[in-house]
Amino acid sequence: MDISYILNELGEDRDSYFNAVAPPIVQTSNFACRTVEAMRYALQHEAEVDFYTRGNNPTVDMLEKKIAALEGTEHAIAFGSGIAAVSAAVLSQVRAGDHVVCVKKPYTWTNKLMQRFLPRFGVEVTMVDGTDPANYLAATQPNTVLYFLESPNSFTFELQDIAAIAALAKERGICTVIDNSFASPLFQNPASMGIDLVVHSATKYIGGHSDAMGGVVCGTRQMINKIFETEFMTLGAVLSPHDAWLLLRGLRTLPIRMERIAQTTRQVVAYLQTREEIEEIMWPFLPAHPQYQLAKAQMKNNTGQFTIRLKTDKIEEVDLFCDSLQHFLMAASWGGHESLIYPAAAAYKSGNYKSSLPFTLVRFYIGLEEPEYLIKDIEQALEKMKGR
Ligand SMILES: *Cc1c(COP(=O)(O)O)cnc(C)c1O
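^ Trans-sulfuration enzyme family protein, sequence as received from the core. Prediction below:
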């Protein structure tokens, strides 16, 4: 399917809403039935009909159809946040007594789900270094039901060999779930590599404007309907029609934003490579990176995140560099129009949380600004850090 068709036409039914170009926000909790027979049908087929917005809503459905098509899956289901989508996908596959193998250092709240939440319900989890698929196999037990992947993963951007891990799982009847948020649905399609459920935080690239939250799980109709009937309807992490509309609006410009972000990121990284204040750039798209070939093979392009390690042993210098940046906002999240940094050093002084990451790491997200504008800013912050 053409990306242009998906983004501009698929799921749009303009005849039914005055030929409006922008779809309506169907801001209703309820849909009425004309007859008992119609209501009987709705109750028996709630996954397929608009009956109650915690189940289906036309504005949300349109978003689901487009993201499923971008990921090349039969179906998708939207949630009120990315972590709700991650949790629902994982919970749909496990019961007490089961075992999960998960990549080490996933997104913070995925980590909490794996390490703190699942064990409360009798689900055991082993975290593995995902850079070698053999580690998934080595951790597999007779009761392993799920492999969880996040590639590239949070903060340090290590990749997992998606096709290899999916193949190991298939041979053993193990389900695979991947968090694909970092790659965007344009630059990596794990279902085509054999992954069963593909999850996105739509808050990030899909929305793209830092003004709405959402999440999506993509998979076969059967697997998505199972999630609908259990985790989706009972936990109720519903995406509001208004936020679905904002995410749909973001989707319209996803290709041009991703292309621009990819290009600017390459320019900023190229500049950083010339600076002696930087010890390391963690970015799988550098030819010297050990996973460069894998990145080229399983991703269509780079995205806007990378992490640098500053060449210093003083946290004050890291603070000074970060505080000196004028055009990078210091914040969590990413995927919007605005460039961001997230310093690992921020986790060091808060007392109640001991970071496992060195304080010299600073994660960058490159947004839509002019490359020179960002590079100049980094340059002056590096000079300040060195007291020049
Ligand atoms: C942000 C993020 C999430 C969580 O998404 P929310 O929309 O914030 O709930 C999950 N996975 C990854 C990789 C993320 O970056």
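DSSP finds 14 helices and twelve strands in the chain.
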